[in-house]
Design brief:
alpha/beta, 19% strand, 6 strands, 44% helix
Amino acid sequence: MNRTMTSDRNASQLVVIDVQEKLCGVMPPAELASTLKNCGILLQAARLLEIPALLTEQYPKGLGPTHAELEPFLENIPRVEKTCFSCCDEAAFRNKLSGDRPQVILTGMESHICVLQTALQLQALGKQVFVVEDAVLSRNPAHKANALARLRQVGVIVSNTESVVFEWLKVAEGDAFKQISRLIR
């Protein structure tokens, strides 16, 4: 596979991992607000650019549904319930993951558990993995920093929301550019 260091809208798929009510309740408030905003931007950009997205929920009976702030952006997005930490250990996730899109853009919680394990397994499965640094979160900032350092060491691309959406756009023109530009202001 030809690997590039930038995300490509025709090769990408977006995965939002476990951004659930009860889990959000134990996150640092300022970082949570930023993470929710950036996950929302990525979901809206993916919809505008027709990039497939997938949502996971870790044991929703215990951790609750996906945070209400993201619900407006989740129409027609497949959801996978799981109890495994790595999304890849859940057959429904692997079945819903797009086989013809080699890049997986990861967001969600927690950086050092589900995001980390999923990223490592996706990479082992041959996917090119991007973790969006300002759209992932852990209860403890040191755990997030450690997870991102580990991911960088093994070649996972750590990026940010604006870089991803502008890499998807490629050019500063058209209706999608105007709409996405408004989202990030």
